Amino acid sequence: MVTVAILGGLGAALCFGTGTLAVAHASRLVGARPVLNWVMIVGLAITVPIALASGRPHGLHGRELGWFALAGVGNVAGLLLFYAALRRGKVTIIAPIASTEGAIAAVLAVVAGEALGVPSALLLAVIAVGVVLASLTTADQGGSHTVAATLLAAAAAVSFGASLFATAKVSDELPLVWAVLPPRLVGVLVVALPSLALGRLGIARAAVPFVVFSGVCEVAGFASFAVGARHGVAVSAVLASLAAAVAAVAAYVLLKERLRPVQVVGITTIVVAVAALSAVRS
What we know:
The chain is mainly alpha-helical. The chain is 81% helix and 0% strand. The radius of gyration is 18 Å and the shape is globular.
């Protein structure tokens, strides 16, 4: 069933990577806070009906509530930091930095006792290198990048990594929808409702399609990761970090950005390493 961990991680990467492009555009249109508000609202609108239909889970006790809270707070904080970074810097620099979330979650999983053989560990390291290579940019690609953007992206990676690990823990004990729900619930309670109280929940019409698409991608990505994590947290987490490579390819196809030779090498490395990992872990 390790193949499920691989497919879950890859599915999460596809969702997170394509969602990154949409949210980057929306953040530059209206700012990080309005985008986060509506991404959380869209996600909650998707997950709450499913959660209510499934009923209150029996395994929701003290320890699970702790993981539930960490999954939600970590993701919301990470998104706010990530969106702020996207507004200040280049997607192709910020995405690979934030994508180290997978490595952080994988390290946490191994520290917590998950077994990971030497071949798998080496292949995951190769994939991580491929992610960085596939996402490298140059100074002449247009736009500006600041030190603040880099620091924000690094802080986002730490928050995301903790959230991914906590999501995996929740998914072990509770139905799938309850693993996806925490960030949406925390985001609406902590971010969107205060904005509503202050009369700042509005958003420009031009940004609406992008925040809706990103909200759907967030839910789908977390659901895919949660399924994969039930069969291997470390594998799913590192493969989810391929979102940076997905974003680079999507930028090439949709935004007509050229891929540099080093990015082609990175993407090729990723494909070969993922195939090898599938064979090793099957």
